[in-house]
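> forwarded from #structure-qc
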């Protein structure tokens, strides 16, 4: 669980390096999980002093110091009104309830997370559905990898890889040696030649639905960015988006 430090009090703030400043007043000091230090007063939304992701931050009794190269920020706290460390999490779009603790699940970037229980990575271009898994209670997702698959958000509960493998493993041949292309995971899903390492042919599995064959013999996919061959470098006519008339 990420945490931030919050201090509200009467402080003297000194910044050295590029925009030297020396200020005093009742302010709000926030040290974020990435070590960014922000000092806000009552004057507006923009901080009166800050240092973004500095190399070092020290929070000691009565003092916050941060340094990044030749930039140095020092905050002396003379009178503390509020001080504490508090949990922080990603803010995102609500996508359901956590089945373990009933907190709200949120989608942010490439993951769905529960502020109490942890996060689950999302495949590229996945759609989070309103329906939930009958086994674990997490949301189900729709992912297009050659076909449209609906699986549990938790890969450990229901494997997208296994579904894709059952549908497309050995479905197509290697353009170099005519061996079978296998569905593999190497960081992401791949179609790689079974003869590896003797044959090193491999293609990232596109986000989209299989729609016929390219002139080069490889499969064509309808993707969010248009029609394309499995080989992203292919320039054959059937590998490109057809012109509209």
């Amino acid at each position: 669980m990420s945490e931030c430090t919050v201090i509200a009090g009467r402080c003297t703030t000194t910044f050295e390096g590029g925009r030297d400043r020396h200020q005093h007043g009742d302010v709000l000091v926030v040290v974020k999980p990435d070590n960014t230090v922000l000092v806000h007063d009552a004057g507006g939304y923009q901080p009166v002093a800050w240092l973004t992701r500095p190399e070092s931050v020290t929070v000691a009794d009565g003092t916050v110091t941060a340094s990044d190269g030749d930039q140095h920020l020092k905050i002396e706290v003379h009178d503390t009104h509020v001080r504490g460390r508090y949990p922080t999490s990603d803010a995102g779009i609500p996508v359901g309830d956590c089945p373990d603790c009933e907190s709200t699940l949120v989608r942010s970037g490439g993951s769905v997370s529960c502020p109490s229980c942890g996060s689950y990575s999302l495949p590229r271009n996945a759609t989070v559905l309103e329906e939930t898994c009958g086994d674990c209670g997490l949301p189900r997702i729709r992912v297009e990898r050659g076909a449209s698959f609906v699986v549990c958000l938790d890969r450990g509960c229901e494997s997208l890889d296994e579904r894709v493998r059952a549908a497309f493993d050995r479905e197509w041949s290697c353009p170099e040696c005519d061996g079978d292309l296998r569905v593999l995971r190497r960081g992401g899903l791949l179609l790689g030649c079974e003869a590896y390492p003797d044959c090193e042919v491999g293609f990232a599995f596109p986000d989209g639905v299989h729609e016929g064959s390219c002139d080069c013999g490889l499969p064509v996919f309808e993707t969010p960015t248009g029609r394309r061959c499995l080989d992203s470098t292919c320039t054959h006519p059937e590998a490109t988006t057809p012109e509209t008339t």
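QC bot note: Residues 169-239 form one domain. The radius of gyration is 26 Å.
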